[in-house]
Design goal:
Number of strands: 9
Structural class: mainly beta
Order of helices and strands: HEEEEEEEEE
Largest sheet: 8 strands, antiparallel, barrel
Helix content: 10-25%
Oligomer: single chain
Number of helices: 1
Radius of gyration: 27 Å
Shape: elongated
Strand content: 35-45%
Strand order of the largest sheet: 1-3-4-5-6-7-8-9
């Protein structure tokens, strides 16, 4: 009986040591923690307005928007429901295609409505000019292309736009019904640090 009591005490002490060791080591491996914005060298948040033109070129020898998928070959939907287009569209300071290039819109848009021309836009504005060079903004939203002004959310950013949030307003500047090419004016309002 004395051996059993001794073994029981030994086992209890061993269990306490193992449990406390496990708990203390678990505390040192954090999945998350709260940090100060200053530790990331974040300054005061500011609101920036960017203005540029998006050139969606689907025609010619060097298109910047290419259809990569569609629902099926017999789809006669007037809204092109199910069509998916990959883009690498130039962003310029003026509506003329020859004006100064400030970035590119890279991503996809897809016809996501059966009743109207409504696109799901998933794109990054990748900037290559001035202090924004190397930074990007991510846009994810609905674009009812025949509405006068469309608003889509900015969901993220990189570089100078880390922690970005805001919205874009798109307004068609020109649309060629013959070729499908479009120039769209963008006003971007973004909070960032």
């Amino acid at each position: 009986m004395a051996k059993i009591k001794g073994f029981s005490k030994f086992f209890t002490i061993l269990l306490i040591i193992l449990t406390s060791s496990t708990l203390s080591s678990a505390k040192s491996h954090h999945f998350s923690k709260t940090i100060s914005p200053k530790s990331l060298k974040l300054k005061k948040e500011k609101l920036s307005h960017l203005h540029f033109y998006f050139h969606d070129i689907v025609s010619g020898k060097n298109p910047t928007a290419v259809r990569v998928a569609q629902a099926n070959m017999t789809n006669t939907s007037p809204t092109l429901f199910g069509v998916v287009v990959m883009i690498d569209d130039p962003l310029t300071v003026a509506p003329e295609p020859s004006s100064k290039l400030v970035g590119r819109a890279q991503g996809i848009y897809a016809s996501a409505s059966q009743n109207e021309t409504g696109l799901l836009m998933v794109m990054n504005f990748v900037f290559m000019e001035g202090k924004y060079n190397g930074s990007s903004l991510s846009v994810l939203g609905r674009n009812a292309v025949f509405s006068t002004v469309r608003e889509m959310p900015i969901i993220a950013g990189s570089g100078i736009f880390r922690f970005a949030r805001g919205y874009v307003q798109a307004k068609t500047h020109t649309f060629d019904f013959r070729t499908g090419d479009a120039i769209v004016e963008y006003n971007v309002y973004v909070f960032h640090y």
